[in-house]
Amino acid sequence: MSSLQELSAELGKAMNICMDKIIPKIPTNEISESVEDDNERMIDLQLHRYLEEDQEQPSQAIELQMHNYFQIAKQLQIKLERIVYHERNKDERALKDEIACLEQEVERKREVITKYTTLMQKWSREFIKLDEECDTPLPKFE
């Protein structure tokens, strides 16, 4: 399991702990399954009981769990930003390498063109010399 997956799992666990502390546990055996209104009333009753109990108890545990959750979330955010940065740099390096290869190819083609042009100029001079030396003119190639 990668460190990113571990962080994500840890974040999920921390979130579940926070949610368990904040949202009341409602026992399913107390909820009447027959009528939806009974369900809503039971949930409201459980929530009301929980809120009354919560006012009596300090909420330090909830704050601690939320703080822990946000720390893990921040670590996950930092890891994700590093991955995004790394991917951008990888793409940028690939593009730079491709540009360098294309520049080398262009330079090789310039060298070939330069050599060909030089050779053609040399041949033209040789043909002119031969033309001047011979009585019969040589055919012109165009």
Task: Please explain how this structure is put together.
With 142 residues, the protein is an all-alpha fold. Helix content is 81%, strand content 0%. It is built from 3 helices and no strands. It is rod-shaped.
Overall residue-averaged pLDDT value: 75
Oligomer: single chain
Approximate helicity band: over 70%
Which percent range describes the beta-strand content? under 5%
Over the alpha carbons, how many angstroms does the gyration radius reach?
Answer: 40 Å
Give a quick set of tags describing it.
single chain; mainly alpha; 142 residues; rod-shaped; 3 helices
TL;DR?
The chain is mostly helical. It has 3 helices and no strands.
Reconstruct the topology from this structure.
Layout: H1 3-22, H2 36-56, H3 60-133
